């Protein structure tokens, strides 16, 4: 029997094979208390694609050099610029608290500007760089210099983080995934 679609695609129905259960369980933080993500259950319908997608995303956390708070700000801003309530909601609910990005900060990344006084000068430059990446697909010399508090490897990683999350957000939006109960709801005043 096929599982009902939630969004546009039905998640992989249970019972899962041992391989599928293990693959789904590899997504997310090891201490996560939420159920398997709808996104991962949908993506696992194509196991090789799910494995390749997860491998890069996981390496950005496990082996990444970008400081956790800055990575989270970049991810949340990317999600906001792409208008992805699903991925933004999961990041804001789980990673925000772990990395010191408060609820009001998460909301500000959707409804506020890069020049918001809540952000340090470095964070303002990071947010402006993410905005430029989303708007142009590149970074100007000024934006590159603005994130000069990061070394070259960290700046390259920031670009990869933004690109990977743009892809994940595009997937979530394309599948019309609804925000799950444990996720932070999209803030009022944020366009989508």
Task: Summarize the structure in words.
This is Carboxymuconolactone decarboxylase family protein. The protein is an all-alpha fold. It has one domain: Up-down Bundle (AhpD-like), CATH 1.20.1290.10. The protein has helices at residues 18-25, 38-43, 47-62, 68-82, 85-99, 103-111, 121-136, 141-146, 152-174. α5 (85-99) crosses α9.
Q: Short summary of the structure?
A:
The longest helix is centred in the C-terminal third of the chain and has 23 residues, at 152-174. The chain has 192 residues and is an all-alpha fold. The protein is globular.
Number of domains: 1
The helicity comes to: 55-70%
Largest sheet properties: none
Task: Please identify which CATH superfamily we are dealing with.
Answer: AhpD-like
Q: What proportion of the residues form beta strands (DSSP E)?
A: under 5%
N-to-C CA distance:
34 Å
Number of helices: 9
Output the radius of gyration: 17 Å
Order of helices and strands: HHHHHHHHH
CATH architecture heading: Up-down Bundle
Number of strands: 0
Regions with little confidence, pLDDT below 50 for 5+ residues: none
Q: Specify the structural class.
A: mainly alpha
Q: Class in CATH?
A: Mainly Alpha
Overall shape: it is: globular
Organism: Nocardioides panacisoli
Protein name: Carboxymuconolactone decarboxylase family protein
